[in-house]
Amino acid sequence: MGEKITVSLIKADVGGWPGHATVHPDLIETAKKELEKEKGKLLIDFHVTNCGDDLELLMTHRRGVDCEEIHALAWNTFEKATKVAKDLKLYGAGQDLLVEAFSGNVRGMGPGVAELEFEERKAEPIIAFMMDKTDPGAFNLPIYKIFADPFNTIGLVIDPSATTGFRFEIWDILESKRVFMDCPEELYKMLALIGAKSRYVIKRVYPKKGGKLPPEEAVANISTEKLYKIAGEYVGKDDPVALVRAQSGLPAVGEVLEPFSFPHLVAGWMRGSHNGPIMPVSQKNAVCTRFDGPPRVIALGFQLSNGRLIGPVDLFDDPAYDQARIKAQEIADYMRRHGPFEPHRLPSEDMEYTTLPKVLRELEKRFEKLE
Ligand code: 13P
Ligand code: 13P
Ligand code: MG
Ligand code: MG
C-alpha cells in the first residue's frame, strides 16, 4: 500500500445510564449510524463501544493524527449522541463536551484522544485499551511494564529486535512540558518521574533508532487529557484510553496484557476522589456499579488488514484474568473500609479539583488562631 494508516481512538462521556454506570444502547447506535456514513469516505473502518459511561469511537483512516475532519466527525458524533442522551434525560448529558463549538481539534475540548500513524506491517496486531473511573496516570505502571520491565516482557531479553529497548515521551501535565527518556539506560530516572502518576504521564512510546521499526512512528499512545484543567472544576474523571501495537520487534500481545494481571491502585472511583484497584473486565462487564466502580479496564484486540479492523477480540473475557478480578475485589473491600480517610480518599492536592474545597471554604471562618 505504502500510504500510512492512522488509528484514532476518541472518547467522551456524553451521558451515563443510570448515574455514571454505563452507556445507553441508543447512544451506541447513534454513534454507529454517524460513523457508518463515512465508511469508505473519511474512514476505512470503525468500531463503536463503551467502557463504563464512556462512549468510545475507534476509527481507521489515512489522514494522519490530529486531522481536523476526523476530529470534527468525532465531535459531531458526540453531539448527536448528546441529543439522544438529553432526550432520555441520561445523567450528565454532554458531560465531556466542555466547549460550545468545535474548532479544529477535539484536544482541549473535553474528549480523550489516542492516535497512532504508521506503515501497516505484514501482520499488524493492535490493542485498544479503555478505562473508566480513573485518570491518565493509571496507564503509567502497565505501559512501563510492557516496554521496560524484563520480568513482564521476556522479549526485552530474548528477542534480538527488542533488546535495545524503547524511548518514552513523558508529559508533565501540571506545567505542560515533556521529556524523552531512553530505556533501559534511563530506567531509574524515568521511574523517579512516572511513579508520581498524577503529574508525570507517559504519552507515547517509540522504537529506538537502528531497530526493525521506524523510530519516528510511535508504537503506543495514551490519552492524557485532564478534564479539570480544561473545565477548571470537577466534571468527572478523564477515563483514559490507549493504543498499543504488538509483535515483531514489539512486545507480544500476551506481554502487552500481562501487567493487568496485577490490579494496581489508581486514582478515580467514586466522585473521582478515591484510590482503588483497576479491574480488568470483559466489555460486557464494563459497568461501574460498586461505589461507582471499582475502576475498570477493557482490552479489545484487532489485526489490521489495510486499515480494516479485524476484530474485536475481547481480551480480558478470559478465566486467566479471574484471579486479578478476585484480587481487585479483595482490594476494593480493604480500601472501602477506610471510608472518608486517606489513602482511600485522594491526598489533599489531588482533591483540589473535586467538590471538597467548597466544603472546606465553609469551615474556614470557624477556625481560631492558635497561640
Ligand atoms: P506461536 O508459536 O503460537 O506463534 O507464538 C509465538 C510467540 O511469540 C508467543 O508470544
Ligand atoms: P465519570 O468520570 O466516569 O463520569 O465518573 C464520575 C463520578 O463522579 C463517578 O462517581
Ligand atoms: Mg459520567
Ligand atoms: Mg466515565
UniProtKB/TrEMBL annotation:
Dihydroxyacetone phosphate binds at H20, K133, R271, D292. Consists of a single catalytic domain, but remodels its active-site architecture via a large structural change to exhibit dual activities. Mg(2+) 1 binds at D13, H20, D53, Q95. GO terms for biological process: gluconeogenesis. Keywords: Carbohydrate metabolism, Gluconeogenesis, Hydrolase, Lyase, Magnesium, Metal-binding, Schiff base. Belongs to the FBP aldolase/phosphatase family. Mg(2+) 2 binds at D53, D54, D132, D239. PANTHER family: FRUCTOSE-1,6-BISPHOSPHATE ALDOLASE/PHOSPHATASE, FRUCTOSE-1,6-BISPHOSPHATE ALDOLASE_PHOSPHATASE. Beta-D-fructose 1,6-bisphosphate binds at H20, Y91, G104, N105, K133, Q247, S248, R271, D292, Y353. Mg(2+) 4 binds at D238. Mg(2+) 3 binds at K237, D238, D239. This is Fructose-1,6-bisphosphate aldolase/phosphatase. The keyword Hydrolase applies.
